[in-house]
Backbone:
């Protein structure tokens, strides 16, 4: 069925489109009789305003762009859940794009969102080593931007993160307090700022507890998958058969490490402890259950969307804009994969 327009109503009533529009908006210069006729006909014909046209006229689309490195990770799925919930509560739709850890794809997706005239953009960047002119372009066009999880200091915008270094420090300190001394770290790619901070936290915890950080115990994973965990746990244990703990960049890598240890018949945690990061649902259901850093992903999504929507509203009203640095707390969830060792 053809969508009813203002022109259709105007033709039926023999009045101008402008009069119909004014009547529907309640303008006082339209007579009560005309307004009543317009309202009744609009209701009978099931007329619905063209919200896209109205929003474009007001220079808003009620859409938010979201660029994340990967949807398959439970962490980003939970962040998305928080973002969508907050956006829908405020009448916004979310356009979700996955950059697949590619800076080139990230550039194209930013151009796409700018062309779509989104009201604001939420991003977790993919590469700290690349130039970021494409991200600065968002700022130059005065499009509200909030970065979350993986961020860069040189971009002037609000940011929502955790203290990755402190979280890793606490995780490794927990392993050390449990009696572990030779701790392998399966870290993320070199170009990941989160991986860099977590590795720094790992090294600082060792040094602060009187253990010299050994670079040969650090293995750079190509990604964040179970396969990476299996592959690099095997390499680490072949190189260091006396290692007594493994601290992993993500839970999925930790699950891969546990799978490899189980295949080799190495007892967890009696012979080697394993600590993950993000406290994903899989952590509590694998065997043995995985100790992990609890990362508030859904809250991160809600906080990010809330900051963005607030900035969109302020820009619309031409109010001054303040940028915020929100750092959410983390804590350690200990399960079966770590154990307090009896010291001789």
Residues:
């Amino acid at each position: 069925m053809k969508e009813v327009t203002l022109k259709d109503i105007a033709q039926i009533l023999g009045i101008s489109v402008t009069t119909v529009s004014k009547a529907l908006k309640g303008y006082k210069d339209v007579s009560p009789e005309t307004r009543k006729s317009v309202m009744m006909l609009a209701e009978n014909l099931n007329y619905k305003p063209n919200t896209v046209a109205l929003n474009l006229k007001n220079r808003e689309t009620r859409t938010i762009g979201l660029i994340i490195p990967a949807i398959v990770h439970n962490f980003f799925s939970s962040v998305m859940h928080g973002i969508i919930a907050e956006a829908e509560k405020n009448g916004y739709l979310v356009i979700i794009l996955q950059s697949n850890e590619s800076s080139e794809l990230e550039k194209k997706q930013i151009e796409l969102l700018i062309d779509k005239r989104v009201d604001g953009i939420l991003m977790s960047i993919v590469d700290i080593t690349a130039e970021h002119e494409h991200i600065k372009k968002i700022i130059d066009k005065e499009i509200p931007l909030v970065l979350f999880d993986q961020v860069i200091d040189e971009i002037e915008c609000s940011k929502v993160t955790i203290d990755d270094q402190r979280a890793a420090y606490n995780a490794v300190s927990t392993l050390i307090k449990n009696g572990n001394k030779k701790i392998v770290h399966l870290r993320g790619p070199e170009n990941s700022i989160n991986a860099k901070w977590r590795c720094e936290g790992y090294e600082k915890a060792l040094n602060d507890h009187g253990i010299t950080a050994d670079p040969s115990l650090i293995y750079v994973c190509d990604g964040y998958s179970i396969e990476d965990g299996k592959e690099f746990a095997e390499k680490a244990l072949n190189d260091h058969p006396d290692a007594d703990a493994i601290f992993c960049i993500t839970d999925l890598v930790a699950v891969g490490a546990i799978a490899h240890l189980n295949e080799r018949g190495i007892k967890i945690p009696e012979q080697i402890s394993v600590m993950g990061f993000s406290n994903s649902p899989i952590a509590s259901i694998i065997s043995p259950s995985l100790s992990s850093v609890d990362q508030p992903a859904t809250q991160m999504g809600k906080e990010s969307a809330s900051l963005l929507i607030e900035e969109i509203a302020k820009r619309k009203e031409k109010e001054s804009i303040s940028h915020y640095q929100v750092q959410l707390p983390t804590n350690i969830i200990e399960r079966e994969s770590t154990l307090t060792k009896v010291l001789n």
Summary: The mean pLDDT is 92. The longest helix spans residues 297-316. DSSP finds twelve helices and twelve strands in the chain. Residues 164-295 form a domain with the Rossmann fold fold (CATH 3.40.50.2300).
